[in-house]
Amino acid sequence: LLQMEAAQGTLVGDVFLVAAGVGYLGAFTAPFRRRLTSQWAELCATHAVAISPDWSLVRTLATPLQLQEWALLTLPTDSNSQDNAVLVTSCTASASKRWPLMIDPQGQALRWISKMEAQEGLKVLKAWDHNLLRSLEVCIRNGTPALLEGVGETLDASLEPLLLKQVYTANGRSLIALGGPDTAVDYDPHFRFYMTTKLPNPRYLPDVCIKVALINFTVTMQGLEEQMLGEVVAIERAELEQSRNKVVQSVASDKKVLKNYEDGILRDLEAAEGNVLDNERLIESLKKAHSTSEILSRRLEEAEEQSQSITQARLAYQPVATRGALLYFVIADLAAVDPMYQYSLDYFKRLFQHIVAQTPPHEAFGEHLQALLDRITEEVYKTVCHGLFKKDKALLSFLFAAQTGRQAGAVSEAEWQFLLRSGLMARPQDEADTPLRWLEGKRWALVCALERHIQAFAGLAEDLVQRPRVWQQWAQAQTYDVGLPPPGSDTLERPLGPVSCPEDAWSECCAILEAEGFPTQPRPSVRDVREILHSLQGRGKFAVAAQVGHLLQGGEGSGAHWLELTLFQRCLLVLVLRPAFLSYAATDFVQWSLGAAFTEPPPFDIAKSTADATAETPVIFILSPGADPFTPLLKFAESRGYRNRLHVVSLGQGQGANARQAVELG
Questions:
Q1: 247, 268, 309, 368 - which has most CB atoms within 10 Å?
Q2: Which long-range contacts (CB under 8 A, 24 or more apart) does 276-279 make?
Q3: Distance CA 288, CA 540 (A)
């Protein structure tokens, strides 16, 4: 009662935000939705419109029972996917004016709706089907839900009466003129219409947007992590995943029965006449319903406890799921580099499952977990490399290293954004104020921007002004393998001698280095220190690297902390002062972050490529001038004993029958 009374005070504001959300949020991505709803909440507070502190579309329009039922139907459990489900069900309600058109590049909406409407006889139609209108007429007449997949950036004009829901009544019948005024068909009010597009970023004109409700079903990081977690646990701990699925189904079923009993009690009380206490039949019915509800409630509590213990056991594999989701988003973004680089989520899941299943077990769970992480990263890299042009393979390895670094916290968001948008962060006034004759104004502006946006580079501009000679030598060096300007020095030649630091600092440093397996006799040179720091950072021990750098260079004068920069920060410094060597710095970063295997793209392996192929997934060779894969393909067929089954068919007119015959022969 207290909750209901509190909800009454915020009912108007909550419903107002729901109306805005249903009307406008659907087409946007999850981060933009959060930002938009946050701004709406601030505006409501400014104008004294009371809203619930934990307002969301899901809390207002969905029940916990609905959420569990949707999860059983393969809907991801992240908040964005649940919001999308709420929007879809709102659009298919009888009072809605627009049908949902879902942006669904990974096919999540298609799978969920197919299972949700399976019992109603869902009809899946293709946008390019010549009999599309005839199939829709049958669905409309019978009240069968229909899903139109493969929608492009334009919609067939013949669908307009359906999209605008131009239903009219004639002679007591509800009709809709689909395809023209002379083709009116009976309209069943139970009919529901869904549309999906595979386009990841479609550009719909306003005349399309006003006819449909756009809903962005693009997979989110959180949702994909949950899916990847289910995949890895189903392979590593099959009994655990089966127990979880049974518990989820049991909880959903019991909650549904419990709600039916509670609703039945309310109906009986509402329909009772006279004095309720005199109605023995009603009292017995209420007692039975109450006892059953108590039994179900206890079962739900036990199931919830069991579910929590299963969840804790599953979370042990969370790092593997996170790595898998991270790598998928990296390769999905490759489409921005070349439209040919497009990988479906279903393909990536099959690859992920294969790698996990083929990873040999280890006695220690921690070692096995690390082996899974390493193998997944390396095998995905090798597999994806086979489909990339040579010029893009180094980019893939760098993206893998950078994104895993961001996920681990080794690369900050500010550092990543500077790498992407450094030119936009530079101020024009800084270009004209450069104090160094050897450094062009554009570079000086980037130095100022780097110092302004990233704390690790505080004092960089001042150090350049105070020690222009050594920085000029470093920036204009003809080779990449030149150490950073040494602390307190005006020349690059001095760092070859031993590091000098107070004895107490050296003793403390020796203990740390020996614990990490580094020799301390003779004393390392500054160049040796650079390699030690690189090695520690490559192992992910950034705190130790910073401590060693502080002890060894702390008493060396100005610029001591430049030797403590992480490898990614060094990439930024090279970008600003030595842009011609950025690829070398990136290679260093990849090698120390992921290993040498990621700096040399794997050679083409026809055996591995054919192992990834199936009867439905062909191998396609993209040839450059002068390349001929036929000879290695012939040798491979002979080595496998398939020479007699290798059929060569050239493209051209009249070759269709020959190709079909070769497929049938296998």
A1: 247
A2: none
A3: 62
The Cα-based distances of 192 to 93, 110, 132, 213, 587 in angstroms read 8, 14, 16, 14, 54
Q: CA 211, CA 501: separation in Å to the nearest integer?
A: 73
Query: Which DSSP string do the residues of 111-125 spell out, in sequence order?
Result: HHHHHHTGGGT-EEE
**For strand 184-186 and strand 173-177, is the pairing parallel, antiparallel, or unpaired?**
antiparallel
Q: Which residues pair with 146 in a beta bridge?
A: 123, 193
Q: Locate 109 and state its tokens.
A: 């909406």
Q: Pairing mode, if any, of strands 212-216 and 99-103?
A: parallel
The DSSP secondary-structure symbol of 218 reads: P
Pairing mode of beta strands 123-126, 146-149? parallel
CB 251 within 8 A of CB 72: no
For residue range 219-231, list pLDDT tens digits in order: 999 889 989 998 9
What b-and-e string marks burial along 609-631, b requiring 16 or more CB atoms within 10 Å of the CB? beeeeeeeeeeeeeeeeeeeeee
The four Cα atoms 473, 479, 485, 490 give a dihedral, to 10 degrees, of -30
Kindly report the length of the chain: 666
pLDDT digits over 124-156, tens only? 999 888 889 999 999 999 999 999 999 999 998
pLDDT for 552-595, tens place per residue? 554 444 455 676 788 899 999 999 999 999 999 999 899 888 88
Complete DSSP assignment for 576-626:
HH-GGGHHHHHHHHHHHHH-GGGTSPPPP-HHHHHHH--SSS-----PPTT
Radius of gyration of the chain (CA): 32
CB pairs under 8 A, 24+ apart, for 625-629?
Answer: none
Q: Which residue has the tokens 């395809």?
A: 179
